[in-house]
Q: What sequence folds into this?
């Protein structure tokens, strides 16, 4: 399976339960990495993802009829905040995350910067974001085991 077998589309309200289930599956490895199964993406509710859907854009990566990835973003004062980039564990490392990131960036115009954050031990995520032009601009300790690295990509 290669990324060119995958189509990126805007999610619909009826996709949200499947996207939430995929998110919880994909974030399990992050929970293991940090020894914390109470990470917010693992505890998110359908009501909460519906609010994110209403206040931003959620994209899905489709392979045939199956959702194999997703990402979401929202605007805030000229900056685009990208969150919850997820790819099915069996599909990771095939370029789907990069496709989703490119698609979400292209979904917004008139943006000063794109912002994303990830855990300090999530080296695969950090490498992807850095390859795409993001630079670390700060850190935020969350727990004794988890520090979020904040990254930013200036536009223009």
A:
């Amino acid at each position: 399976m290669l990324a060119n077998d995958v189509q990126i589309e805007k999610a619909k309200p009826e996709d949200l339960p499947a996207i939430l289930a995929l998110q919880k599956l994909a974030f399990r490895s992050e929970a293991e990495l940090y020894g914390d199964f109470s990470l917010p993406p693992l505890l998110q509710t359908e009501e909460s993802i519906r609010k994110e859907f209403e206040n931003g854009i959620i994209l899905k990566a489709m392979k045939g009829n199956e959702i194999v990835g997703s990402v979401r973003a929202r605007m805030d004062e000229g900056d685009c905040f990208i969150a919850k980039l997820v790819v099915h564990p069996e599909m990771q490392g095939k370029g789907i995350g990069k496709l989703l990131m490119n698609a979400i960036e292209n979904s917004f115009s008139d943006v000063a910067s794109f912002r994303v954050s990830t855990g300090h031990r999530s080296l695969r995520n950090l490498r992807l974001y850095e390859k795409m032009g993001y630079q670390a601009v700060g850190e935020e300790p969350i727990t004794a085991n988890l520090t979020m690295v904040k990254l930013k990509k200036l536009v223009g």
Q: What stands out?
A: The chain has one domain: 3-154. The first helix runs from residue 16 to 26. DSSP finds six helices and seven strands in the chain. The helical segments are 16-26, 28-34, 40-43, 46-55, 96-106, 123-131.
